[in-house]
């Protein structure tokens, strides 16, 4: 029998690991174990040989082997049909279950257009992950038993891709590539024609590479954010070159390396004659000089503007007027450059649905080791979406961009809320009304200005002020920046007539445009388009509900209680969950009467009913169950015991762009009331 090279063994192991982390093998394993325990309740754990035999009998092993491609093996016709249309990379999904990276020789592309093939080969020196722990196979967790995984997201000229998850290790093996179009800008006359050398030299867009890590509990962490200058490939022989990318950390660790990744860049078709290094260096130096000069001129203007702002009133020194924000790499940008009008196509239909979507992206306050105070980090939108989590600034910027795309006059506000906590939210200013939008929960509040010279408000009027905001220092969007120069920065007394120069000090529109026009500043943030959700909400709802039922049964068993579910009552909970989500999107409550009538008819006379709804933004069943039990009512329902107790549970997952989800659950029970004789 021929021996297999060590590097080939590593490749095979990685291919199998990648497939196991993406497939539904975990569901198959749970089904086998569940069936075995029911058929052999007293025989102990299932043996490995018996488990493999069961998986073979169910076709799981054959299905897995058919889907794994080794080396240069050609895909079958059916598999070839499932490969992504690489000639249209902008429609590629970010979902790792469907994204397929294939060798260049297997890729179909339009030979009349210029492309860049970017291949990630392997990584080295990821020393922080040499001893990455394995995940525990706890019941109720949908994550696999593999170690935590890395994933790379890339953005280039509004084309987005993501690699399959690969092992989180000191020297990860990647070997995945993507085909990027180099002439997508119709306004510059590039679309539909082969990009020549001069056109390629003028494309100053960099490739944004974001490395994330998914831990064993399903949490996603931002590891590194890197901007790759790709035009060195124009100088390479045969238009192909290898590069070593040194990736640094984020935030306060942006100067510390986290590892290196080997990549290969290849121009397709290659240039007839490569560009000299001197010409490329001159082009890069010219772009850098022009960009730096624009930034220098704006900085001079901003300093003068700030000086004038402070001269108006001494108290202005303490107001939250923020002109610059620092990104994840420690680079300062004018805050208005983070905002760009964003049209969501057919993914989001209304501004309120956009607010709901943004609120479902995870919230996480950035912190620094050794510092308990809040630290701002204005993460690039691509990194924010790749991680699917961020701080209030990231949420507010994204929501403002979406509302601008819907044609509203929207601005990001910077001020305080609650106990003087610095916060960012969104305001839309209409002809007659002003509304505040809270990007972290999707709530919308109407603002009514109060004259500070009026008599103090009574208790009823104070209760009508429902928003949580206290002060406002400034507001901005992609075209304007205003500082609050009213006598008080209190939100309730604030007048939002932005054209009134006695109340708001505006920055020059021309000064903002000079630095916030695409292509003028090399380091300016870029807002990517949204990707559709590729999760199956029905299958996901069924899977989570099945896990929740198993957790309830186990929890009650530990308490010495038996468990019986009322499937009909469980089904009747669905309309309530749909109504709750609809209310979050529209602000309107519908269907409550029908739900109450259905429950009344389903609960026998002399029985009581209890229900507890709750919503999460993740799909971790055990995490949701443990959190729900902290509520006294939920604990009463799950632990209910007595005469004729029947439990009910229903899970409903609602999907939004970027694989954002709203996971609604309702725990319920019915039982015979004490003292009832019926």
UniProtKB/TrEMBL annotation:
Residues 110-272 form the CEP76 C2 domain. It comes from the Eukaryota. Residues 70-92 are annotated as: Disordered. It comes from Adineta steineri. Its main location: cytoplasm. InterPro entries: CEP76 (IPR052299), CEP76-C2 (IPR028926), CEP76_C (IPR056288), CEP76_N (IPR056289), CEPT76/DRC7_peptidase-like_dom (IPR056290), Papain-like_cys_pep_sf (IPR038765). Residues 11-68 form the CEP76 N-terminal domain. Pfam families: CEP76-C2, CEP76_C, CEP76_N, CEPT76_peptidase. Residues 73-82 have a biased composition (Low complexity). One of its GO terms (cellular component) is centriole. This is Centrosomal protein of 76 kDa.
């Amino acid at each position: 029998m021929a021996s297999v090279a060590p590097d080939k063994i590593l490749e095979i192991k990685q291919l199998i690991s990648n497939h196991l982390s993406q497939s539904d093998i975990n569901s198959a394993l749970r089904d086998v174990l569940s069936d075995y325990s029911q058929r052999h309740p007293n025989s102990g754990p299932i043996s490995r040989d018996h488990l493999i035999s069961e998986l073979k009998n169910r076709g799981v092993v054959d299905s897995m082997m058919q889907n794994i491609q080794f080396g240069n093996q050609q895909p079958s016709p059916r598999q070839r049909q499932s490969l992504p249309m690489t000639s249209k990379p902008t429609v590629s999904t970010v979902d790792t279950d469907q994204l397929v990276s294939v060798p260049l020789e297997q890729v179909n592309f339009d030979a009349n257009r210029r492309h860049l093939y970017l291949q990630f080969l392997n990584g080295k020196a990821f020393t922080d992950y040499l001893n990455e722990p394995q995940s525990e196979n706890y019941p109720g967790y949908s994550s696999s038993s593999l170690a935590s995984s890395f994933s790379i997201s890339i953005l280039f000229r509004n084309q987005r891709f993501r690699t399959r998850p690969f092992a989180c290790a000191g020297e990860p093996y990647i070997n995945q590539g993507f085909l990027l179009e180099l002439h997508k800008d119709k306004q510059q006359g590039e679309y539909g024609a082969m990009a020549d050398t001069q056109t390629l030299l003028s494309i100053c867009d960099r490739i944004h590479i974001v490395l994330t890590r998914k831990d064993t509990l399903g949490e996603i962490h931002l590891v590194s954010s890197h901007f790759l200058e790709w035009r060195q490939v124009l100088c390479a022989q045969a238009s192909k070159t290898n590069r070593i990318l040194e990736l640094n950390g984020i935030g306060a660790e942006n100067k510390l390396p986290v590892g290196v990744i080997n990549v290969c860049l290849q121009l397709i078709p290659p240039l007839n004659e490569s560009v000299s290094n001197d010409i490329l260096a001159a082009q890069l130096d010219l772009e850098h000089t022009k960009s730096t000069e624009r930034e220098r001129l704006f900085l001079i203007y901003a300093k003068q503007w700030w000086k004038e702002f402070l001269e108006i009133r001494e108290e202005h020194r303490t107001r939250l007027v923020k002109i610059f924000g620092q990104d994840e790499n420690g680079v300062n940008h004018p805050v208005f450059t983070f905002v760009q009008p964003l049209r969501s196509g057919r993914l989001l239909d209304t501004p309120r649905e956009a607010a709901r979507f943004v609120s479902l992206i995870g919230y996480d306050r950035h912190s620094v080791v050794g510092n308990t105070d809040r630290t701002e980090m204005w993460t690039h939108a691509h990194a924010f979406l790749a991680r699917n989590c961020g701080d209030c600034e990231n949420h507010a910027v994204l929501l403002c961009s979406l509302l601008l795309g819907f044609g509203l006059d929207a601005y990001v506000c910077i001020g305080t809320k609650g106990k003087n906590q610095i916060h960012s939210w969104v305001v839309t200013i209409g002809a007659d009304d002003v509304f505040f939008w809270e990007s972290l929960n999707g709530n919308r509040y109407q603002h009514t200005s109060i004259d500070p010279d009026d008599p103090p408000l009574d208790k009823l009027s104070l209760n009508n002020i429902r928003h949580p905001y206290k002060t406002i220092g400034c507001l901005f969007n992609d075209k304007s920046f205003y500082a609050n120069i009213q006598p008080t920065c209190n939100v309730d007394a604030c007048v939002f007539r932005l054209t009134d120069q006695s109340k708001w000090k505006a920055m020059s529109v021309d000064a903002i445009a000079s630095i916030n026009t695409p292509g003028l500043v090399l380091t300016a943030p870029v807002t990517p388009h949204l990707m559709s959700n590729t999760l199956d909400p029905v299958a996901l709802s069924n899977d989570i509900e099945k896990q929740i039922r198993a957790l309830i049964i186990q929890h009650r068993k530990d308490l010495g209680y038996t468990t019986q579910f009322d499937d009909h009552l469980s089904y009747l909970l669905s309309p309530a969950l749909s109504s709750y989500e609809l209310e979050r999107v529209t602000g309107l409550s519908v269907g409550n009467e029908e739900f109450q009538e259905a429950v009344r008819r389903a609960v026998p006379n002399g029985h009581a009913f209890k229900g507890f709804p709750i919503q999460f933004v993740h799909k971790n069943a055990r995490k949701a169950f443990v959190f729900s039990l902290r509520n006294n009512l939920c604990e009463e329902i799950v632990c209910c015991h007595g005469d004729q107790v029947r439990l009910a549970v229903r899970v409903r997952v609602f999907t939004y762009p970027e694989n954002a989800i709203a996971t609604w659950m309702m725990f319920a029970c019915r039982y015979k009331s004490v003292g009832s004789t019926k």
